[in-house]
């Protein structure tokens, strides 16, 4: 990996990028300079047009003054087109909430439901919990995310869950993604990807549609192996019992 350097980036920006998980030229290039600029702003760092150009230059390993007018225009356009960006949750916090979501998924499995669990968190406090229950409730909408959203909305007395995070063990399906967006959830953090119905990038990506009037940041792969193993064990058990 190629380290970020001064120039073109100020030392304070390099330190901030390290804290945000962008510690190399390759990571910055993959994430995108425009999105990195928005991420720095979300983290409370000053990030104007000159820094945008410096980020673009750093992603290529050149000085920002070496960028052509066309390259600067492309960075400006990318910044305008980019979706809102949010800072990821702290790793320890994310793992703890995902462990709690997996406990809910285990309860679902014990009831014969596909093991998916979800939590809604606001300011560090769990305000909604849900586990898959479409069979038990005879309700096709009773996915873990929907039930957690309902409980959180009842807790707050408002269907708009501004400033809330949703943790779920499996990538949301299109129905749940729509509910999450409608609720104005700030961040979704999920464990295992869903290659069959995932609507956060695996099959489709409803969260990437800028034309929508609300946007939710998505973070994936938290305890992904443990979440996937939970699902695999459940379906293996079904196959054994016929």
UniProtKB/TrEMBL annotation:
Pfam families: dCMP_cyt_deam_1, TfoX_C. It catalyses: adenosine(34) in tRNA + H2O + H(+) = inosine(34) in tRNA + NH4(+). It is an enzyme of class 3 (hydrolase). Its cofactor is Zn(2+). It comes from the Bacteria. Binds 1 zinc ion per subunit. Zn(2+) binds at residues 143, 173, 176. One of its GO terms (molecular function) is tRNA-specific adenosine-34 deaminase activity. The active site is at 145 (proton donor). Residues 92-203 form the CMP/dCMP-type deaminase domain. Keywords: Hydrolase, Metal-binding, tRNA processing, Zinc. GO terms for biological process: tRNA wobble adenosine to inosine editing. Its EC number is 3.5.4.33. Belongs to the cytidine and deoxycytidylate deaminase family. ADAT2 subfamily. Homodimer. This is tRNA-specific adenosine deaminase. It comes from Crenobacter caeni.
């Amino acid at each position: 990996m190629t380290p970020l350097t001064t120039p073109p980036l100020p030392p304070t920006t390099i330190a901030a990028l390290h804290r945000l998980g962008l510690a190399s030229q390759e990571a910055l290039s993959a994430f995108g300079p425009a999105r990195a600029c928005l991420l720095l702003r979300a983290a409370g760092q000053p990030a104007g047009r000159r820094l945008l150009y410096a980020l673009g230059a750093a992603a290529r390993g050149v000085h920002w003054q070496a960028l052509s007018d066309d390259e600067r225009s492309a960075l400006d356009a990318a910044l305008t087109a980019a979706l809102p960006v949010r800072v990821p949750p702290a790793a320890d916090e994310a793992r703890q909430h995902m462990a709690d979501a997996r406990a809910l998924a285990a309860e679902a499995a014990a009831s014969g439901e596909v093991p998916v669990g979800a939590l809604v968190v606001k300011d560090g406090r769990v305000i909604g919990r849900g586990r898959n229950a479409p069979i038990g409730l005879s309700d096709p909408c009773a996915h873990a995310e929907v039930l957690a959203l309902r409980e959180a909305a009842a807790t707050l007395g408002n269907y708009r869950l501004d400033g809330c995070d949703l943790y779920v063990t499996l990538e949301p399906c299109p129905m749940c993604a729509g509910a999450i967006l409608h609720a104005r959830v700030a961040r979704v953090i999920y464990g295992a990807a869903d290659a069959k119905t995932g609507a956060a990038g695996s099959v489709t990506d409803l969260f990437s549609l800028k034309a929508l009037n609300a946007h939710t940041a998505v973070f994936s792969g938290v305890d992904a192996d443990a979440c996937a193993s939970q699902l695999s064990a459940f379906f293996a058990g079904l196959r054994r019992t016929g």
